């Protein structure tokens, strides 16, 4: 049994929204509703779903950007060699924990401070945590730039983000993320804004780094084809819930949940001779079914570590 | 060695960035006109001390406040007739003619007879070679006053703008960053300042305190800094606050203060600079209005010059004493306008949406 | 054999910028037949959108068409006056913009905005006729007719995009350009929109120019396609032929770098380097610096020119001449 780097249990994130100008009623939006998963060391989990399904909310909750409203998140503590809940961490402990978790954002144009040089951007985590003396820090920056393929590093260090191309900027983001040698990185669609030919090189870079540095990714994307390339396991999210989670190939070859089937069938195939079968479902019906049965029934294992949400899906197939 | 290359490259890149921005600014014709105007007045402001130090100008003659050089003129004393027209004068307004003086005006000088030549000093004197823009009613050099006025305008404008924008940038960023009660309080405060009519407020302040240039700069700066610009800076800071690089710093464990000062502030700075340039315009205009109304305790400024020409009764004399009003009036208009145009030019540089690609 | 609706020949377009001229479109030629769908694929900045804008003569102020011709139904569009163009636009050729969700005026009802477009081109129609027309358009793109009285912000992204398609069809154009119409949408909605476009195209016998960076979408949507790189077309031909037998190295790289959910999981090949800056004059083959298949038989110094390598299948001379 592999050790897990992160375990998420019954994570919930509810938002309260007011019901309009004159109404005092407050509605609750369940952006993330009772999701559970774990990621072993060195493996990557893909979180796939439509926009607005709660992928990014999950990511932000895991990175402690926004407080969650319920559930438990545990992280592997290297010093104690055991899982440790991160919910009660405070002060120095919290700061220490933050070294282990990083996030790569979707937009390479917005995720780097336009007024900072590349060197300063990558140095920031080291400065915040006060690691090494100045020369060591500089060396670390040069080294990580080389690792992400920006060579020679001294050509990039004094530049500003707008002087680089999209692919190069995303490499800088990755470098900044990895300079703390985190064990767990949340990736929020890091390649969706890049061009096709550059996208693969970034994905390959991330895969190689994962292997070399033993990093686990939580890879958020709406594109199953990308998730397939990047991840060992895929979790399909729909309306704040995980409806199906399995090994990547198992999920693609043997989808059970109607939403998963719909998602897989809607990916265009780069082959004009391939006749894509479209599997259509009624989203309203699915919504109301999940509403009715979703919250009180756990996910069941149908073999091969393939879990499916157990709301009655027969009526839809 | 590598470090050196690194620094050289950094310097070069910075130089290039400045060059690029300068080129963008140069694209804006209005901005360039504004810049020329501002430079012209800056030159005037610096020229005056230079002239005094080098002794080209004598302080006793050219000092804008206490300088005095009478221009002598000899007039023929005449007696204006009671009825018109006469042979010499067609109507009442023709007497005394040029080079003449009515004896009735000289009742204070005993022993003067009609037909005498009367020596007098003309004040205000029209432009001459020694006084390029003439003198005012106290015999002081107008050109020197204009120079002194532009010093006042620069000190006042830049000081109050820096102060105002500094205050509003810090408050706006804090409001955006911390939100909640601090935000609510700061926003209500700017609403209040916006609501207060600023001119009457300045009247009241000047009634209680003797306002000098420095005081006025502080008052204008604080009023401007607490007013509407806080709201605008806040909205800009709100946009920066939700950028992924701020999130990313937070995930890494950056403290609020660190994020505020190293991420948010530098990114609202261009807008703040823009505000600063525009508020110079406002400060210069306010100064002239207050001086014109005689509410400021300043020795010399463009506003004071216009004020003096009015209290001495020359302002409604048409263009006859133009050198008393026009230079000061035009200076105020041009410098205020010049800063505004520079702001427009900077807007082109900082606002990529307005940029011509 | 159906007739040619749109003939583009040797189109050259550049942008005048501070740092010099940017040649965005270089010697682009292609023909779209009646009822055919033609795909234009390439990375961002390769000139796809510039081609679309030139076709509509809607290019930015600093863009200049320096040479070439665009013939719609035999009528030359380059050099037309603005008033003539206004007639041709929308009822001859219309466009579904990239990020069309923002194409709506937020304070005018969706139906009114479409009505406006129809009124411009058919001033003699009665109000009832126009309403019927909009209703039929909405039905065609799978929208309820009550959407007409809604404001844009009341619609979801997919609905807005459908309405944009209805708007593009409102004046019965012969050619519709779809410029990345699904880029900002989710896969499921993208799938629905693609199906809708295809259905409408077949129903009305439209000629479609589909512009995308996603070669998988092009594979599904088009009969013929052209691959653009650095402002030039490097390969064009029937879509099935190009996918089965890609000739240009860039086309091969594109195909090798697109992940898929069907078939075996394959190692994808990335393309090193970045596309060239269009501000510099590029001599010879623009792809040569990144080309993974360079060998001694290459002739990268040859000026770019398309040569026929198969029936209706053209490829740049540099790749064609390689052994």
What would a concise description of this structure say?
The complex is a heterotrimer of chains A (about 325), B (about 350) and C (about 325). Chain B is mostly helical and about 350 residues long.
Topology readout:
The complex is a heterotrimer of chains A (about 325), B (about 350) and C (about 325).
Chain A: E1 4-18, E2 26-40, E3 44-48, H1 55-62, E4 70-77, E5 82-85, H2 91-98, E6 101-104, H3 118-129, H4 134-147, H5 153-156, H6 166-178, E7 184-188, H7 196-213, E8 216-221, H8 224-230, E9 233-238, E10 241-247, H9 248-253, H10 258-265, H11 283-293, E11 299-301, E12 307-309
Parallel strand pairs in A: 3-8, 3-9, 6-7, 7-8
Antiparallel strand pairs in A: 1-2, 1-4, 4-5, 9-10, 10-12, 11-12
Helix pairs in contact in A: 3-6, 4-6, 6-7
Chain B: H1 2-27, H2 29-53, H3 59-62, E1 71-78, E2 100-102, E3 117-122, H4 142-178, H5 180-195, H6 198-208, H7 213-226, H8 228-241, H9 244-252, H10 256-292, H11 302-311, H12 322-350
Parallel strand pairs in B: 1-2
Antiparallel strand pairs in B: 1-3
Helix pairs in contact in B: 1-12, 2-4, 2-12, 4-5, 4-7, 4-8, 4-10, 4-12, 5-8, 7-10, 8-10, 9-10, 10-11, 10-12, 11-12
Chain C: E1 4-17, E2 20-33, E3 37-41, H1 48-56, E4 63-72, E5 75-76, H2 82-91, E6 93-96, H3 110-121, H4 127-140, H5 157-169, E7 175-179, H6 187-204, E8 207-212, H7 215-221, E9 224-229, E10 232-238, H8 239-244, H9 249-256, E11 306-310, E12 313-316, H10 317-320
Helix pairs in contact in C: 4-5, 5-6
């Amino acid at each position: 049994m592999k050790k897990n780097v992160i375990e998420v249990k019954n994570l919930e994130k509810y938002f309260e929204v007011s019901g309009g100008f004159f109404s005092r009623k407050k509605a609750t939006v369940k952006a993330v509703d009772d999701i559970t998963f774990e990621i072993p060391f060195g493996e990557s989990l893909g979180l796939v779903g439509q926009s607005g399904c709660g992928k990014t909310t999950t990511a932000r909750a895991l990175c402690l950007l926004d407080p969650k409203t319920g559930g438990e998140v545990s992280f592997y503590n290297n010093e104690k060699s055991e899982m440790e809940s991160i919910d009660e961490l405070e002060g120095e402990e919290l700061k220490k924990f933050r070294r282990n978790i990083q996030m790569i954002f979707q937009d390479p144009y917005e995720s780097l401070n336009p007024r900072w040089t590349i060197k300063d951007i990558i140095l920031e985590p080291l400065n915040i945590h006060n690691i090494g003396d100045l020369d060591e820090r500089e060396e670390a920056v040069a080294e990580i730039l080389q690792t992400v393929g920006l060579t020679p590093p001294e050509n990039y260090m004094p530049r500003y983000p707008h002087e680089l191309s999209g692919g190069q900027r995303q490499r800088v983001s990755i470098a900044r993320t990895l300079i703390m040698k985190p064990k767990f990185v949340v990736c929020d669609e890091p390649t969706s804004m890049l061009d096709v030919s550059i996208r693969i090189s970034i994905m390959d870079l991330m895969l190689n780094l994962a292997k070399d540095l033993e990093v686990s990714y939580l890879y958020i994307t709406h594109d199953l084809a990308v998730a397939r390339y990047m991840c060992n396991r895929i979790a399909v999210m729909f309306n704040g819930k995980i409806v199906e989670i399995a090994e990547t190939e198992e999920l693609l070859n043997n989808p059970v949940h109607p939403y998963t089937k719909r998602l897989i069938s809607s990916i265009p195939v780069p082959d004009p001779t391939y006749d894509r079968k479209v599997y259509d479902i009624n989203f309203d019906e699915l919504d109301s079914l999940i509403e009715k049965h979703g919250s009180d029934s756990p996910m069941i294992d149908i073999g091969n570590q393939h879990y499916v949400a157990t709301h009655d899906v027969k009526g839809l197939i | 060695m590598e470090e050196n290359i690194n620094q050289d490259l950094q310097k070069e890149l910075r130089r290039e960035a400045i060059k690029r921005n300068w080129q963008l600014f140069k694209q804006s014709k209005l901005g360039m006109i504004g810049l020329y105007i501002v430079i012209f007045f800056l030159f005037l402001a610096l020229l005056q001390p230079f002239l005094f130090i080098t002794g080209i100008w004598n302080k006793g003659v050219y000092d804008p406040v206490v300088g005095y050089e009478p221009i002598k003129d000899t007039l023929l004393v005449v007696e204006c007739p009671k009825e018109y027209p006469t042979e010499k004068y067609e109507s009442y307004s023709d007497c005394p003619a040029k080079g003449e003086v009515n004896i009735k005006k000289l009742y204070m000088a005993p022993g003067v007879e009609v037909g005498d030549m009367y020596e007098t000093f003309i004040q205000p004197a029209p432009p001459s070679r020694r006084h390029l823009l003439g003198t005012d009613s106290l015999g002081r050099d107008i050109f020197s006053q204009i120079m002194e006025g532009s010093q006042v305008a620069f000190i006042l404008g830049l000081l109050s703008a820096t102060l105002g924008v500094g205050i509003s940038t810090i408050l706006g960023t804090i409001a955006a960053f911390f939100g909640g009660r601090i935000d609510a309080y700061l926003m209500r405060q700017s609403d209040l300042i916006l609501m207060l009519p600023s001119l009457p407020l300045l009247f009241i302040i000047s009634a209680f305190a003797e306002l000098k240039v420095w005081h006025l700069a502080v008052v204008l700066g604080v009023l401007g800094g607490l007013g509407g610009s806080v709201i605008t800076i806040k909205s800009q800071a709100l946009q920066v606050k939700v950028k992924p690089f701020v999130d990313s710093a937070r995930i890494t464990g950056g403290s609020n203060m660190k994020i505020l000062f190293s991420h948010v502030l530098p990114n609202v700075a261009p807008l703040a600079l823009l505000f600063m340039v525009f508020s110079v315009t406002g400060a210069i205009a306010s100064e002239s209005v207050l001086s014109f109304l005689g509410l400021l305790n300043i020795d010399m400024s463009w506003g004071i010059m216009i004020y003096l020409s009015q209290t001495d009764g020359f302002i409604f004399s048409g263009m006859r004493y133009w050198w008393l009003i026009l230079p000061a009036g035009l200076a105020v208009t041009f410098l205020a306008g010049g800063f505004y145009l520079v702001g427009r030019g900077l807007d082109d540089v900082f606002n990529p949406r307005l940029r011509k690609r | 054999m159906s007739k040619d609706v749109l003939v583009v020949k040797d189109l050259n377009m550049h942008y005048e910028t501070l740092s010099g001229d940017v040649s965005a479109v270089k010697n682009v030629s292609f023909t779209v037949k009646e009822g055919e769908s033609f795909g234009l694929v390439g990375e961002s900045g390769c000139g796809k959108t510039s081609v679309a804008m030139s076709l509509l003569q809607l290019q930015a102020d600093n863009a200049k068409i320096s040479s070439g011709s665009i013939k719609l139904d035999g009528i030359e569009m380059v050099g037309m006056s603005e008033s003539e163009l206004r007639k041709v636009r929308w009822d001859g050729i219309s466009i579904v913009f990239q990020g069309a969700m923002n194409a709506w005026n937020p304070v005018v009802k969706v139906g009114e905005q479409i009505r406006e477009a129809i009124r411009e081109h058919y001033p003699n129609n009665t109000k009832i006729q126009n309403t019927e027309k909009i209703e039929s358009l909405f039905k065609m793109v799978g929208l309820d007719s009550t959407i007409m009285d809604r404001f844009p912000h009341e619609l979801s992204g997919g609905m807005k995009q459908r309405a944009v398609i209805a708007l593009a069809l409102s004046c019965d154009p012969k050619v519709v350009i779809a410029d990345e119409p699904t880029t900002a949408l989710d896969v499921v909605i993208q799938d629905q929109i693609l199906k809708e476009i295809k259905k409408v195209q077949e129903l009305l016998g439209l000629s479609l120019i589909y512009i995308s960076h996603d070669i998988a979408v092009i594979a599904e949507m088009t009969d013929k396609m052209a691959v653009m790189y650095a402002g030039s077309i490097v390969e064009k031909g029937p879509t099935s032929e190009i996918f089965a037998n890609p000739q240009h190295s860039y086309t091969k790289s594109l195909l090798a770098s697109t992940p898929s959910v069907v078939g075996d999981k394959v190692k994808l090949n990335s393309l090193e380097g970045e596309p060239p800056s269009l501000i510099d004059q590029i001599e010879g083959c623009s792809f040569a610096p990144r080309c993974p298949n360079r060998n001694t038989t290459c002739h990268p110094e040859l000026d770019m020119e398309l040569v026929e390598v198969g029936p209706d299948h053209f490829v740049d001379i540099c790749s064609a001449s390689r052994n």
